[in-house]
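Hypothesis: this fold can be encoded by more than one sequence.
Test: take the C-alpha coordinates below, design a sequence, compare later.
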Protein backbone atom coordinates (compact mmCIF):
# COMPACT_ATOMS: atom_id res chain seq x y z
CA UNK A 1 0.00 0.00 0.00
CA UNK A 2 1.09 3.53 -0.77
CA UNK A 3 -0.06 7.05 -0.02
CA UNK A 4 -0.81 9.16 -3.07
CA UNK A 5 -1.54 12.78 -3.86
CA UNK A 6 -5.23 13.55 -4.32
CA UNK A 7 -6.47 12.94 -7.87
CA UNK A 8 -9.49 14.75 -9.35
CA UNK A 9 -12.86 13.16 -8.59
CA UNK A 10 -15.34 15.85 -9.62
CA UNK A 11 -15.98 17.63 -12.94
CA UNK A 12 -14.66 20.95 -11.64
CA UNK A 13 -11.49 19.38 -10.21
CA UNK A 14 -10.83 17.49 -13.44
CA UNK A 15 -11.43 20.49 -15.70
CA UNK A 16 -9.13 22.65 -13.57
CA UNK A 17 -6.37 20.04 -13.58
CA UNK A 18 -6.58 19.44 -17.33
CA UNK A 19 -6.66 23.17 -18.03
CA UNK A 20 -3.63 23.78 -15.82
CA UNK A 21 -1.69 21.28 -17.92
CA UNK A 22 -3.00 22.54 -21.25
CA UNK A 23 -4.98 19.35 -21.83
CA UNK A 24 -8.51 18.48 -22.98
CA UNK A 25 -10.40 15.22 -23.63
CA UNK A 26 -9.26 13.59 -26.86
CA UNK A 27 -12.05 12.07 -28.98
CA UNK A 28 -9.51 10.04 -30.96
CA UNK A 29 -8.74 8.00 -27.85
CA UNK A 30 -12.36 7.74 -26.73
CA UNK A 31 -11.66 9.66 -23.52
CA UNK A 32 -14.60 9.95 -21.13
CA UNK A 33 -13.45 10.54 -17.56
CA UNK A 34 -15.43 9.17 -14.61
CA UNK A 35 -16.23 12.13 -12.31
CA UNK A 36 -18.67 10.70 -9.77
CA UNK A 37 -17.05 9.75 -6.43
CA UNK A 38 -19.94 7.43 -5.50
CA UNK A 39 -19.31 5.32 -8.60
CA UNK A 40 -15.61 5.21 -7.76
CA UNK A 41 -16.56 4.01 -4.26
CA UNK A 42 -18.79 1.33 -5.80
CA UNK A 43 -16.02 0.12 -8.13
CA UNK A 44 -13.52 -0.15 -5.29
CA UNK A 45 -15.97 -2.12 -3.14
CA UNK A 46 -16.64 -4.55 -5.97
CA UNK A 47 -12.93 -4.92 -6.77
CA UNK A 48 -12.16 -6.22 -3.25
CA UNK A 49 -8.57 -4.97 -3.54
CA UNK A 50 -6.03 -6.55 -1.17
CA UNK A 51 -2.38 -5.75 -0.55
CA UNK A 52 -1.32 -8.94 -2.32
CA UNK A 53 -3.24 -8.10 -5.52
CA UNK A 54 -1.74 -7.34 -8.93
CA UNK A 55 -3.98 -4.83 -10.69
CA UNK A 56 -3.93 -3.86 -14.35
CA UNK A 57 -5.61 -0.57 -15.25
CA UNK A 58 -6.20 0.35 -18.90
CA UNK A 59 -6.47 4.11 -19.39
CA UNK A 60 -4.73 5.94 -16.52
CA UNK A 61 -6.49 9.18 -17.40
CA UNK A 62 -5.87 11.81 -14.72
CA UNK A 63 -5.03 9.10 -12.16
CA UNK A 64 -8.36 9.20 -10.32
CA UNK A 65 -8.93 5.44 -10.20
CA UNK A 66 -5.18 4.73 -10.19
CA UNK A 67 -4.72 6.64 -6.96
CA UNK A 68 -7.41 4.64 -5.20
CA UNK A 69 -6.02 1.34 -6.47
CA UNK A 70 -2.52 2.27 -5.29
CA UNK A 71 -3.76 2.79 -1.74
CA UNK A 72 -4.82 -0.84 -1.34
CA UNK A 73 -3.14 -3.03 -3.99
CA UNK A 74 0.29 -4.61 -3.82
CA UNK A 75 1.22 -3.75 -7.40
CA UNK A 76 -0.52 -1.62 -10.05
CA UNK A 77 0.30 -1.48 -13.77
CA UNK A 78 -1.47 1.41 -15.44
CA UNK A 79 -1.40 2.12 -19.17
CA UNK A 80 -2.09 5.42 -20.92
CA UNK A 81 -1.79 6.13 -24.65
CA UNK A 82 -2.09 9.92 -24.29
CA UNK A 83 1.35 11.45 -23.61
CA UNK A 84 -0.12 14.49 -21.83
CA UNK A 85 -2.25 12.41 -19.46
CA UNK A 86 0.60 9.97 -18.85
CA UNK A 87 2.79 12.87 -17.74
CA UNK A 88 -0.01 14.43 -15.67
CA UNK A 89 -0.76 11.19 -13.81
CA UNK A 90 2.91 10.68 -13.03
CA UNK A 91 3.03 14.19 -11.59
CA UNK A 92 -0.08 13.61 -9.47
CA UNK A 93 0.87 10.10 -8.30
CA UNK A 94 4.65 10.24 -8.58
CA UNK A 95 5.26 9.07 -5.00
CA UNK A 96 3.38 5.79 -5.56
CA UNK A 97 6.11 3.18 -5.25
CA UNK A 98 3.78 0.30 -6.08
CA UNK A 99 2.60 1.80 -9.40
CA UNK A 100 4.25 1.20 -12.78
CA UNK A 101 3.24 3.73 -15.44
CA UNK A 102 3.30 2.59 -19.07
CA UNK A 103 2.97 5.12 -21.88
CA UNK A 104 1.55 3.44 -24.96
CA UNK A 105 -1.36 1.59 -26.51
CA UNK A 106 -2.50 -1.45 -24.52
CA UNK A 107 -2.80 -3.21 -27.88
CA UNK A 108 0.41 -3.93 -29.82
CA UNK A 109 -1.87 -5.06 -32.65
CA UNK A 110 -5.52 -6.03 -33.06
CA UNK A 111 -4.78 -9.43 -31.50
CA UNK A 112 -1.78 -8.84 -29.20
CA UNK A 113 -1.26 -6.97 -25.94
CA UNK A 114 1.43 -4.35 -25.36
CA UNK A 115 4.81 -6.07 -24.87
CA UNK A 116 5.96 -3.78 -22.04
CA UNK A 117 2.72 -4.39 -20.14
CA UNK A 118 3.05 -8.16 -20.58
CA UNK A 119 6.66 -8.11 -19.37
CA UNK A 120 5.75 -6.20 -16.20
CA UNK A 121 2.70 -8.40 -15.65
CA UNK A 122 4.66 -11.62 -16.19
CA UNK A 123 7.22 -10.50 -13.59
CA UNK A 124 4.51 -9.62 -11.08
CA UNK A 125 2.69 -12.93 -11.55
CA UNK A 126 5.73 -14.91 -10.37
CA UNK A 127 6.39 -12.66 -7.35
CA UNK A 128 5.73 -14.82 -4.24
CA UNK A 129 4.56 -11.74 -2.32
CA UNK A 130 1.73 -11.16 -4.79
CA UNK A 131 -1.32 -13.30 -5.43
CA UNK A 132 -4.55 -12.49 -7.32
CA UNK A 133 -4.51 -10.86 -10.74
CA UNK A 134 -7.25 -8.27 -11.23
CA UNK A 135 -8.23 -5.82 -13.95
CA UNK A 136 -10.03 -2.67 -12.84
CA UNK A 137 -10.60 -0.11 -15.57
CA UNK A 138 -12.78 2.37 -17.38
CA UNK A 139 -12.14 0.71 -20.73
CA UNK A 140 -12.12 2.96 -23.80
CA UNK A 141 -15.01 1.80 -25.96
CA UNK A 142 -12.93 1.43 -29.11
CA UNK A 143 -10.57 -1.19 -27.66
CA UNK A 144 -12.81 -3.13 -25.26
CA UNK A 145 -13.46 -6.16 -27.48
CA UNK A 146 -9.91 -6.70 -28.82
CA UNK A 147 -8.48 -6.11 -25.35
CA UNK A 148 -10.67 -8.74 -23.71
CA UNK A 149 -10.06 -11.30 -26.46
CA UNK A 150 -6.28 -10.76 -26.38
CA UNK A 151 -6.17 -10.84 -22.58
CA UNK A 152 -7.99 -14.18 -22.46
CA UNK A 153 -5.74 -15.65 -25.14
CA UNK A 154 -2.57 -14.62 -23.28
CA UNK A 155 -3.60 -15.09 -19.63
CA UNK A 156 -6.98 -16.79 -19.49
CA UNK A 157 -9.48 -15.05 -17.22
CA UNK A 158 -8.00 -12.94 -14.38
CA UNK A 159 -9.20 -13.71 -10.87
CA UNK A 160 -11.48 -10.68 -11.01
CA UNK A 161 -12.29 -7.90 -13.47
CA UNK A 162 -14.38 -4.83 -12.66
CA UNK A 163 -14.88 -2.95 -15.91
CA UNK A 164 -16.76 0.06 -17.13
CA UNK A 165 -17.71 -0.75 -20.72
CA UNK A 166 -20.25 0.25 -23.33
CA UNK A 167 -23.69 -1.02 -22.28
CA UNK A 168 -24.01 -2.96 -25.54
CA UNK A 169 -20.79 -4.87 -24.80
CA UNK A 170 -21.95 -5.55 -21.24
CA UNK A 171 -25.14 -7.07 -22.64
CA UNK A 172 -23.11 -9.19 -25.08
CA UNK A 173 -20.87 -10.52 -22.31
CA UNK A 174 -23.80 -11.54 -20.13
CA UNK A 175 -26.17 -12.70 -22.89
CA UNK A 176 -28.04 -16.00 -22.72
CA UNK A 177 -28.33 -18.48 -25.64
CA UNK A 178 -31.11 -17.63 -28.07
CA UNK A 179 -30.91 -13.87 -27.51
CA UNK A 180 -29.75 -11.31 -30.08
CA UNK A 181 -26.77 -10.28 -27.94
CA UNK A 182 -25.39 -13.83 -27.63
CA UNK A 183 -22.12 -14.23 -29.54
CA UNK A 184 -18.51 -15.48 -29.64
CA UNK A 185 -16.95 -13.05 -27.13
CA UNK A 186 -19.70 -13.71 -24.60
CA UNK A 187 -19.28 -17.45 -25.05
CA UNK A 188 -15.50 -17.22 -24.59
CA UNK A 189 -15.96 -15.09 -21.48
CA UNK A 190 -18.64 -17.30 -19.92
CA UNK A 191 -16.58 -20.45 -20.47
CA UNK A 192 -13.70 -18.91 -18.53
CA UNK A 193 -15.57 -16.79 -15.99
CA UNK A 194 -18.79 -15.84 -14.26
CA UNK A 195 -20.24 -12.61 -15.70
CA UNK A 196 -22.55 -10.16 -13.94
CA UNK A 197 -23.75 -6.75 -15.11
CA UNK A 198 -23.68 -4.81 -11.83
CA UNK A 199 -24.91 -1.35 -12.73
CA UNK A 200 -25.97 0.73 -15.74
CA UNK A 201 -24.40 4.19 -15.58
CA UNK A 202 -25.88 7.54 -16.46
CA UNK A 203 -24.02 9.60 -19.05
CA UNK A 204 -23.90 12.33 -16.40
CA UNK A 205 -21.15 10.57 -14.41
CA UNK A 206 -18.62 11.13 -17.20
CA UNK A 207 -16.83 14.17 -18.59
CA UNK A 208 -17.37 14.70 -21.42
CA UNK A 209 -20.71 12.89 -21.61
CA UNK A 210 -20.42 9.87 -23.96
CA UNK A 211 -22.91 9.31 -26.77
CA UNK A 212 -23.58 5.75 -25.60
CA UNK A 213 -24.65 4.28 -22.27
CA UNK A 214 -22.15 2.50 -20.06
CA UNK A 215 -22.31 -0.30 -17.51
CA UNK A 216 -20.13 -1.82 -14.83
CA UNK A 217 -19.43 -5.51 -15.37
CA UNK A 218 -17.92 -8.04 -12.95
CA UNK A 219 -16.03 -10.93 -14.56
CA UNK A 220 -14.83 -13.46 -11.99
CA UNK A 221 -12.45 -16.12 -13.33
CA UNK A 222 -13.36 -19.77 -12.79
CA UNK A 223 -9.71 -20.85 -12.57
CA UNK A 224 -10.18 -22.95 -15.71
CA UNK A 225 -7.22 -23.97 -17.86
CA UNK A 226 -7.74 -21.81 -20.98
CA UNK A 227 -6.28 -24.00 -23.82
CA UNK A 228 -9.40 -26.18 -24.36
CA UNK A 229 -11.56 -23.08 -24.51
CA UNK A 230 -9.19 -21.29 -26.86
CA UNK A 231 -9.06 -24.33 -29.17
CA UNK A 232 -12.84 -24.15 -29.51
CA UNK A 233 -12.95 -20.42 -30.23
CA UNK A 234 -12.23 -20.59 -34.01
CA UNK A 235 -15.08 -23.09 -34.35
CA UNK A 236 -17.40 -20.80 -32.37
CA UNK A 237 -16.54 -17.83 -34.57
CA UNK A 238 -17.12 -19.84 -37.74
CA UNK A 239 -20.48 -21.18 -36.60
CA UNK A 240 -21.60 -17.67 -35.65
CA UNK A 241 -20.65 -16.33 -39.08
CA UNK A 242 -24.00 -17.84 -40.11
CA UNK A 243 -25.62 -18.02 -36.71
CA UNK A 244 -29.14 -18.85 -37.95
CA UNK A 245 -28.16 -21.80 -40.14
CA UNK A 246 -28.39 -25.40 -38.96
CA UNK A 247 -25.20 -26.94 -37.58
CA UNK A 248 -25.19 -29.91 -39.95
CA UNK A 249 -24.81 -27.80 -43.07
CA UNK A 250 -22.18 -25.58 -41.47
CA UNK A 251 -20.09 -28.51 -40.28
CA UNK A 252 -19.97 -29.87 -43.85
CA UNK A 253 -18.27 -26.69 -45.04
CA UNK A 254 -15.82 -26.11 -42.20
CA UNK A 255 -12.72 -24.26 -43.42
CA UNK A 256 -9.47 -26.21 -43.69
CA UNK A 257 -7.92 -24.35 -40.75
CA UNK A 258 -10.53 -25.97 -38.46
CA UNK A 259 -10.26 -29.40 -40.10
CA UNK A 260 -12.85 -29.18 -42.86
CA UNK A 261 -14.54 -29.66 -45.13
CA UNK A 262 -16.22 -32.77 -43.67
CA UNK A 263 -18.03 -35.58 -45.39
CA UNK A 264 -21.60 -36.28 -44.33
CA UNK A 265 -20.45 -39.43 -42.55
CA UNK A 266 -17.91 -37.50 -40.47
CA UNK A 267 -20.47 -34.80 -39.69
CA UNK A 268 -22.86 -37.47 -38.41
CA UNK A 269 -20.13 -38.90 -36.18
CA UNK A 270 -19.38 -35.49 -34.68
CA UNK A 271 -23.07 -34.84 -34.00
CA UNK A 272 -23.62 -38.29 -32.49
CA UNK A 273 -20.72 -37.86 -30.07
CA UNK A 274 -22.02 -34.42 -29.07
CA UNK A 275 -25.63 -35.53 -28.61
CA UNK A 276 -26.96 -33.11 -31.22
CA UNK A 277 -29.29 -33.66 -34.16
CA UNK A 278 -27.64 -31.15 -36.48
CA UNK A 279 -30.80 -29.06 -36.76
CA UNK A 280 -29.70 -26.81 -33.90
CA UNK A 281 -28.34 -23.33 -34.59
CA UNK A 282 -25.18 -21.89 -33.03
CA UNK A 283 -27.10 -19.03 -31.43
CA UNK A 284 -29.14 -21.53 -29.38
CA UNK A 285 -26.28 -23.64 -27.97
CA UNK A 286 -25.07 -23.37 -24.39
CA UNK A 287 -21.37 -22.38 -24.14
CA UNK A 288 -20.28 -25.83 -22.90
CA UNK A 289 -21.70 -27.49 -26.03
CA UNK A 290 -19.11 -25.71 -28.16
CA UNK A 291 -16.40 -27.42 -26.11
CA UNK A 292 -18.05 -30.78 -26.69
CA UNK A 293 -18.31 -30.05 -30.41
CA UNK A 294 -14.62 -29.15 -30.65
CA UNK A 295 -13.56 -32.28 -28.74
CA UNK A 296 -15.78 -34.50 -30.88
CA UNK A 297 -14.45 -32.92 -34.05
CA UNK A 298 -10.83 -33.43 -32.93
CA UNK A 299 -11.51 -37.09 -32.07
CA UNK A 300 -13.25 -37.83 -35.38
CA UNK A 301 -10.49 -36.20 -37.42
CA UNK A 302 -7.80 -38.10 -35.48
CA UNK A 303 -9.56 -41.43 -36.12
CA UNK A 304 -10.30 -40.76 -39.79
Amino acid sequence: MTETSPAPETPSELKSLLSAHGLAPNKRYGQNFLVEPRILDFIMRQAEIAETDIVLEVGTGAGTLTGRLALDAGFVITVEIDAGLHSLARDVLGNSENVRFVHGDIMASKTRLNDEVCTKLDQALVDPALNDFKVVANLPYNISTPFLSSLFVRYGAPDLMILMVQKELAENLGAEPGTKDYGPLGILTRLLAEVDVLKVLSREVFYPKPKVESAIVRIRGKGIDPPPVLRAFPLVRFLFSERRKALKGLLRKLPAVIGGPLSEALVDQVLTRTGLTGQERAEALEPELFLKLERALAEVLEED
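Residues 11-224 form a domain with the Rossmann fold fold (CATH 3.40.50.150). The mean pLDDT is 93.
Hypothesis status: open.
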